[in-house]
Amino acid sequence: MQEEEYEFGDFEEILDGSENEEVEEEIPQEGFVRARWPKNGEIIGTIVQRYGGNRMEVLTTDGKTRNCRVPGKYKRQLWLRPKDIVLVKLWEFDKDKGDIIYKYKPNEVTQLKKKGLLNSLNQEF
Known about the structure:
The protein is mainly beta. The chain has one helix and five strands.
């Protein structure tokens, strides 16, 4: 018999054994989601329009439209777009303005809808 010549030399294929065994797929389990609730001086809102920079117009659950900003410590953490549900901390000296401190994830939004916290938001846009 003649030895087979490999293109890159005499190397044997090393199997890690995972090909022979059945691989169990990990099924993501949907557990209970604990959404962040508004505390003292905080209110839930939805982004209507971005003005540029870190400023945007937010429609809050009390029916007011507020000019809100993203503080410097959250600038890189929060990627915000219109129709996102956010948590706004109102300013102490001017209640028509606030800081956006949290963006709700989609599974947290469904939790808030079940509890009835988003009923007063008009989802017209």
